[in-house]
Design goal:
- 25% of the residues lie in helices and 25% in strands.
- With 208 residues, the protein is of the alpha+beta class.
- A hairpin with a 5-residue loop joins strand 9 and strand 10.
Amino acid sequence: MPCEKVAIVHHTALYPLVGGNPYDPNSKEVTTSADLYLLASQSLAVMQIRAPLIRTERQAFLVELTDWCKAGVREIVMFASCNAYERWDNSQMTGPQLRYLTSRTSQQNIKDLQSAGALELEKCTDEHGVEQPFLSGSGFVKHFMEVCDLPTTVLIKFVEEGDNSMDAVMLLNFLSSWKKLVERENIAWKMPFSWKNMFGRPTPREIY
């Protein structure tokens, strides 16, 4: 999708990060800890947060992010992951690996999620006997859901350590199917060219 970068997000909660344009090796534009993209034709804003949040500044960031969203965002969709090694139920290990978590969203939205093939995120009981959504390895999702009072849906994928590029593609394909972002099958998503170098070259066959 032809998203246009419109802003750099700066906040003391974000660990500093800077690099080249992840999608165009010939561009002189920089990439930072958090960038904002816009697809005006679909009223879609995409915020990519590429760095973890500093714990002591996290609450302030999430409150300010929520306030910013209230200026005109109708609905929030987040991508997140869960540690696959902490799954505890057979249906989690063998069935669909995509889950959703919602807050203040409509029943129709939930029906559409289920029709598209997602399952509601299971709850587990913590060491204090409190039942809550299973969010191991999901970053600041839980804290954002507690702060944000706008309709929010989190799409969650159980992931293993290693190459998670296909997990990202699965989340994007589901989002497109659910929200009808791209009206065609066999979508070829544009990936950062740097992903080609994540694990180096194939293992030389001569070593076997």
